[in-house]
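Bug: token stream looks shifted between consecutive jobs. Job 1:
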Amino acid sequence: MKIFLPFLIFFTLIACKNDPKKEEIDTSAPLSNQEEILDSLRVSDRNLDAQQQTLNIKRQELLEKKDSKVEMEKLLISKSFLKEGDWYTLDFKYPYLNQKIKPQFENFNEYISKYYLDAKGVEKQILEEKRLCDSLGIPKQNEKRMVDYKIYNLNNRLISVLFYKENHYTGAAHAAYTFDCLNFDLERAVFMNYEDFFNNGSEEELRDILNTLLKTKINSGEMYYDCWAISADDFFDAKNNFVVNDDVVEFYFDDCVICPSYTGTYSIQIPLEMLMPVLRKYKKNPLIG
């Protein structure tokens, strides 16, 4: 069974395309006619104060999301890592599982240690990485990478971990966010990926479901101006970036993938009943039965 791509990939930031074209949702046309939708990224005429206000709301919604840390007190060991260099600060928070409960949880802890706490690798990538949107490209000076996590527990059978990284770039108007998710089967002590939950070849069908929900949000107005449809390439890159929380599966996307950093959302929640046509039907799938 495939394991998630090494967590180190999380620290390779995906820059917004230089070509300012995105797959914009035409709210007057059905999403099934994506090929007829003109690609364009509308430049917002809203002032910086309004953008900062919506950015703050968007950020607070992420930080204040409730998770299962309290109810997982016996299972979960929260740890932290801080390193300050001359031109960067790394401030990471991450979970371990209590191996006294089940020795096989060592699989989870070793994975975190090997791919997550690689400070030298992160430092190298900070030097080499491209900037996300809203960055002025000014040489790096005391840049910050702050990582925290949310964790969810589904019936003591599956844990879903959302890692969110707050990237402070020199010269950027505000922080940009990137995400990575892990799903771990507590009973078998193994990681699970997209194909363990969803049918093989179901990516386009699931992308249509996500875009339908996103279109509804865009039509509602509010904070979703300047957002666009999820492209096939972007969904393929992010298809393992989801967490399971009760009867909802929530997919996360980096800044500038579905919305600019100053508006919209980082994630789209899909009710479980909408996913029934694409769920893989077998006993090891925690979303079935």
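Job 2, same session, no restart:
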Amino acid sequence: MHPGGAHEDRTWASVTEVPQITYVDVFGQTPLLGNPVAVVHDASALDEAAMAAFARWTNLSETTFLLPATRPDADYRVRIWTTDGELPFAGHPTLGTAHAWLQAGGVPHDPDWVMQECAAGLIRVRRQPDRLWFAAPPLMRSGPVAPDVLAQALASVGLSDADLIEANWVDNGPGWLGLHVTDAAAVLRAVPDVSTMGDLKVGLVGRYLGGGPADVEVRAFYPGLGSPEDPVTGSLNASLAQWLIGSGSLPSAYIASQGTALGRAGRVHIRHDDGDVWVGGATVSLIRGTFDLR
């Protein structure tokens, strides 16, 4: 993915504002154990080239840019950038951006909800004292995986047919291919091979059998983020839940652990109610400040 579309010719020198920025840790049990997102407030002065350059500079899996809403039912609009381009939707940036917007004094239309506008449409964020929850957006692609692609996906994470229970496309924006494997041990045994993975974005999920730190372990391999593995991934957890709760393979409420292999301790809360899959997690601001591009 690469930034595209027309934008005015702008240099850093013409950016006269000094934007505010918040680094939010999302899905962590304690600070520094989740997945960080950088949230740029009042980003109207930045064009696409500036957003892309700043996202590359932060070198985080995602950097978001807050903008005025263009729809009357939205509280704000957000653009979500990786080091490699823009995404229509991503999970932990959704929660982190909502957290930063509220903390900076944002007042939603409804005190119990934040309505986020992004390229994927409107995303509802439910407010609770201990965590924020987003409603999983509809899948853009689902269904069975072709045998040759499945073989490539398994080889790219060092697993075999014997480790696999089922596979499905679970794309809600980033392009996820989901592999439901025999247990959490198989998830943790996986070793990514970027050269074999190619353009695939592979998500693994497996149950903890006989007890564990959570109900399931999840891993997300997305080489385009600049690293083969994402620490804690809201979009993948959302789409895996839509698939596996829908098929009866997982219960209607569970907790996913993610980031174990990277020294993180992400906890993603999943529940299905009111016809939606909700994805919840802790959010905490760790850094607040400004950046100067003049």
